[in-house]
Design brief:
It contains 3 helices and 15 strands. The chain is mainly β. A hairpin with a 6-residue loop joins strand 10 and strand 11. The two termini are about 20 Å apart. The C terminus is likely disordered.
């Protein structure tokens, strides 16, 4: 991806911090495409890739499947039991504390077995800041930071790099992940409204399967405000 336009938008010509990432998606002919990008280390961009760690089990119409084994076109089960085809899968690798990288910190959370009730989740899992679940009231989606207690849901720094994933369906939905309901990717309404045009264009290039931000559609539930978090060292 050409980032020249992005760099022109940075105050004082400051070079942005960049993360390598990858997306797989299905084109109009039904062929699966694989594209690699460099994205700015910016929360809005990172949210498209930092939900579920490698090995996380996603419920599909053929049974639980590790997220790294999913392909566009595979059908995952939504919270109402229906199957929806995956249209896009994004992945990036987060590196634990590395002073030489000087990248913005991305928090990761360990969720223990039964943290949200019996078999919810069915086994320990690692998730990122864009892994959102229905809140205690059931009326809004919350990041795991809202449930952090240091025991059942704890912020962690893994000892080795972690490959992270997120996925899109045609419609925003809640899907079954390790026994819990999590949302699929959606940038959120108004998330790009304060971006400069070059940044918005760069963001949309991450999703070749759509033409406009409106193509993400409506959200299945609104999101609760994010709790304040401390910025840690590079991830």
């Amino acid at each position: 991806m050409d980032i020249a336009r992005l760099m022109e938008q940075m105050p004082g010509g400051k070079r942005p911090q960049l993360r390598p990432c990858r997306a797989t998606w299905m084109d109009t002919r039904g062929d699966i495409q694989d594209t690699r990008f460099l994205i700015p280390a910016h929360a809005v961009f990172e949210a498209a890739f930092c939900a579920f760690a490698r090995g996380t089990l996603i419920d599909t119409d053929t049974g639980p499947t590790a997220i790294e084994d999913l392909l566009p076109g595979d059908k995952v089960l939504t919270s109402d039991g229906t199957g929806q085809a995956v249209t896009w899968i994004g992945t990036t690798t987060l590196v634990p504390v590395d002073p030489s990288a000087r990248l913005r910190s991305v928090p990761l959370y360990r969720v223990m077995t039964d943290a949200f009730g019996l078999a919810r989740p069915i086994s320990p899992m690692i998730a990122g800041p864009s892994a959102r679940v229905p809140g205690r009231s059931g009326q809004g989606l919350c990041s795991l930071a809202a449930f952090e207690d240091g025991v059942q849901v704890a912020r962690i720094t893994p000892p080795s790099p972690v490959e992270m994933f997120h996925l899109c369906l045609k419609d925003h939905a809640l899907i079954r992940v390790g026994g819990l309901d999590f949302e699929t990717y959606h940038p959120g309404h108004g998330a790009l409204s304060e971006m400069r045009p070059a940044m918005r264009d760069l963001f949309l290039k991450l999703f070749p399967q759509i033409d406009h931000v409106a193509d993400f559609g409506l959200m299945v539930q609104p999101r609760e405000p994010e709790p304040p978090t401390e910025d840690a060292s590079a991830a």
